[in-house]
Design goal:
34% of the residues lie in helices and 23% in strands. By secondary structure, the protein is α/β, with parallel strands linked by helices.
């Protein structure tokens, strides 16, 4: 079953040199699965995720031949439709919690606001918030609930953001580098929660990451982006057999603990890849 259908998605921003396309003709379909999107910084991964949720910042403009979520055409969605979808059925874990969490609201208040969509009483909202903080390995949820974002470390803020986005158990989650600030043990627990939502509840997951090894072991399929376009799509288990020279270059740049390669491999780019 197709949950998300994206065809020829393009995101354009004005510049002094004229309109610049930061995402160009990106097409894919997502079912109840884990789709990884990888590429260098600036390749268009995050802007693709934001465009799907209608969050392209002005004066940018997102267009697509098809942009449908569970049969709903998102291209012409009204503000009322977006309010019903975002948070409840579609969520996005932003890359940096310092810029995503409200600095003048406590973590508990922000979590309760998210829980309000699925819990009517304040007691149940707090119960859900505490349970989700515990699920992402926060040992003292009562203290974190009373804290403001600036009082948390980067990793703890990231976990609070993940808890907030998962508290409603959305149908589609776009996770932009969700584990980048986490240590290995917490990273494993967060991935377990995401995997459980995909396998048992049927959530669709778009996992944006620089970590090719993590994507290859966790995701089902992978899109490789370069200069705003998808250059290769393949099964995650087949990353080692990638055909495109850019994908092979990314894999070749990964350090190996059992190797002693000198000099370290560097990525050689070809202007033709961006065409």
């Amino acid at each position: 079953m197709t949950l998300l259908d994206v065809q020829n998605l393009t995101v354009t921003f004005p510049s002094r040199q004229g309109p610049q396309q930061v995402v160009r003709n990106v097409s894919f379909m997502l079912g109840r699965e884990r789709l990884g999107i990888v590429g260098e910084s600036g390749s268009g991964k995050s802007q693709t995720g934001r465009a799907i949720l209608g969050l392209t910042p002005a004066p940018g403009r997102a267009t697509a031949d098809t942009l449908a979520f569970d049969g709903i055409d998102l291209r012409g969605a009204s503000a009322k439709q977006w309010r019903a979808l975002r948070g409840a059925r579609m969520s996005m874990v932003m890359q940096d919690p310092k810029f995503s969490l409200n600095p003048v609201m406590t973590i508990g208040r922000q979590l309760a606001e998210a829980a309000r969509r699925v819990a009517s009483s304040r007691a149940e909202q707090r119960e859900r918030a505490v349970a989700m903080l515990e699920a992402v390995q926060i040992r003292d949820p009562a203290r974190v609930m009373a804290a403001y974002p600036h009082e948390l470390s980067g990793g703890m803020g990231q976990r609070a953001m993940i808890a907030m986005m998962l508290i409603t158990e959305p149908d589609l989650l776009i996770a932009d580098e969700p584990t980048s600030a986490l240590d290995v043990t917490v990273q494993i627990e967060v991935l377990r929660i995401l995997d459980d939502l995909v396998t048992t509840r049927g959530m669709g997951l778009i996992f944006i990451s620089h970590d090719l090894r993590l994507v290859s072991s966790f995701c089902d399929r992978v899109l490789v982006m370069y200069a705003g376009r998808v250059v290769e799509e393949l099964r995650a288990t087949e990353l080692q057999q990638a055909q495109h020279p850019y994908t092979r270059g990314l894999m070749g740049c990964l350090p190996r603990i059992d190797g002693n390669t000198r000099p370290l491999a560097t990525l050689q780019r070809d202007e033709a890849w961006a065409l």
